[in-house]
Amino acid sequence: MENGKLKYDFLSREVEEGLLKRLKKVFEAKQGTDGWIAVGNEKGVEISKRPAQEGERPWDTFKGSSVINAPALFILTYVHSFAFRHEWDEMYVKGEYVEVFDPLTKVSLIEFKAVWPASGRDFCNLVVLRELSEGIYCHAYQGVEFEKCPEKQGVVRGEILLGGFVIKELSSDPPKCLVTYITRVDLKGYFPVSFSNRLTLSQPKAVAVVREKVEALYQKDLVAKNEDQSSIMQQSVNTAKEFKKGKEGRIGGGN
Q1: Sign (positive/negative) of CA torsion 49, 41, 214, 121?
Q2: Cβ-count burial of 253 within 10 angstroms (0-12 exposed, 13-18 middle, 19+ buried)?
Q3: pTM over 0.85
């Protein structure tokens, strides 16, 4: 905060609320409404897309959904951690959180592989973990400009228009969640929009791998002693505490 103003505009409540509103709208959208159409089912993941409508920027929105048998915050912590992204995202090269404003609000820099004839891409994003409503959590992100994420030679700086995971708790005992991966991307550079959309379409399919990895990891943690449990189990406990602190702050009149 500088002179009563936020140092970074992207940390404003207006920007956050806009991001979460758009993510929730995509999560709740039904096929056959607002331009949404079915793409198909791949390995248990229902994939759909919304082609860009007249007057909008020309990049399509995609989402893939599947049920995962694990607790919501366990799943949320897994997809939020760069330590595990290489397991489910075949395009991933490397990533880091370059600025942590609080445990649930960060800026990330993430790089993806080149796909001929395109160069590699990187993205600077505002990333937030939030509870959209009771029992519905999200890992949401969108592109921002940030001085700790300068563009570099050899890769093209793309823009995430909308991205993230929405995790809806269906049952707590046994734990079961509906997990939806959402993405809309402008890869920038000089090639047709259709090429960008085709590459983006592959991303929601990764929910099948997330399901496989998370369920195996969670089942292993269930029988492990505390000291032998995965970092995901331990971090999910801390994430739960952060969400609780946030709720208590709102109830107590905090911003």
Answers
A1: negative
A2: exposed
A3: yes
> What are the pLDDT digits (tens) for 5-37?
568 899 999 999 999 999 999 999 998 999 999
Tell me what pLDDT residue 252 has.
38
128: confidence class by pLDDT, cuts 50, 70, 90: very high
Amino acid identity, position 136: I
3-state helix/strand/coil string of 28-45: HCCCCCCCCEEEEEECCE
Sign of CA dihedral 58, 22, 26, 178: positive
* Beta-bridge partner residues of 38: 48
Contact between 186 and 40 (Cβ < 8 Å): no
The sign of the CA dihedral 170, 66, 236, 8 is negative
* Phi, psi of 143, deg, nearest 5: -65, 140
